[in-house]
Amino acid sequence: MERSQQYHSYKKKKRMLIAICIFVLLVSILVGLMIGSYSMSPMEVIQTLFGNGNKMQNFSIFKIRLPRICLALVVAGALGVSGGVLQGITRNPLAEPGMIGINAGSALFVVLLISSKSSEYYSAISKMTAILMPVVSMIGALFAVALIYGLAYKKGITPVRFILTGVGINAGITAIISFYQLNMSKGDYNQVLTWTNGSLWGSNWLYIAITTPLVLLIIAIILWKSRTLDVLGLGDELATGVGVSVQKEMVIFLILSAFLAGLATSVAGNIAFLGLLGPQLAKRMFGSNYRLLLPMSACLSGAILIFSDTIARNLFSPLELPVGIVVSILGVPYFIYLMMKEK
Questions:
Q1: Fewest beta carbons within 10 Å, which of 1, 177, 253, 309?
Q2: How far is 41 from 30, CA to CA, in rounded Å?
């Protein structure tokens, strides 16, 4: 009887936490739709969403803010799940795609693609280039993962060696991007610099339509395999003992997490620490059940990115900060805390 009460209390607590996370995400969306150079009240936002807004309200919501928020949800979902997977397979809370070079590999390949197709950026990108960007970005992410895995592998992968190798790869690829930027015009240099620091520049419905189905498909595959992630979290010996091929599954999850990070980077640049913050907060709230942890990581990452983007758009208006800088300001202290906590 006592165990039954404890179980029901546990389930009730989890449902309450899920409701809180969803509420925080919805509040972040509402705030993001309200605040800008043209401010709106909550009721005006709701009326506009239901088709009762004036011309200025419709333009602000449907042309500018709503696409940006939808893209933020896709990007945050991809990076949140990617970070959760990386932390699970390495059993290291410091693992996330922005820190270990996966985002940088994607960014390098996309910058090369865009600069080879046009001397302009943003709205000047052709539809064919926009379609190629996610593919090229995923190839860049795989390239980075292959480098990290190849250099870190020594009779298996240890968490510390994986992280250190990734940090080195990240620094090397970032240096290559910086060197490549020296050959660009001043305007192109500034625009690429903003993008590589993380910016929701791809906030139009074309980019959202291209990336969303792929992100949802990969997340669905990861959730389908979430039981394997739970087993891998027990350690290599126990996982092998119950019949899991540890190295094979690690490679599969690395590839899937790289694809998610690549898709996010293709439309939002290199947003570091988002794949760290969301999964870590979700783990503290929901434990290590990945079927629940990963969706909640996506939810919390979404709230963090939308709030950060709202700050980035309005703090120095009309100038706009790269959202990656705001996320990093939030993420660096927590990263240092985790690093000091690790033995």
A1: 1
A2: 10
